[in-house]
């Protein structure tokens, strides 16, 4: 898929939703060479 379509955001939000609703741990495996998903967990706002 092309960039800027929300893949990272969707993956992260679905993971949080599944973990919260099922009270389970979620493992994210980031295979993107840019590591956007991994980097998104370390941002401070």
TrEMBL record:
Name of a matching Pfam family: AAA_31
Gene3D superfamilies: P-loop containing nucleotide triphosphate hydrolases
AAA domain segment(s): 2-41
InterPro entries found in the cross-reference section: AAA_dom, DNA_Partitioning_ATPase, P-loop_NTPase
PANTHER family: COBYRINIC ACID AC-DIAMIDE SYNTHASE, P-LOOP CONTAINING NUCLEOSIDE TRIPHOSPHATE HYDROLASE
Protein name: AAA domain-containing protein
Species whose genome carries this gene: Enterococcus aquimarinus
């Amino acid at each position: 898929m092309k960039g800027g379509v929300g893949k990272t955001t969707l993956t992260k939000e679905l993971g949080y939703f599944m973990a919260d609703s099922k009270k389970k741990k979620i493992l994210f495996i980031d295979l993107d060479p840019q590591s956007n998903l991994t980097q998104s967990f370390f941002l401070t706002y």
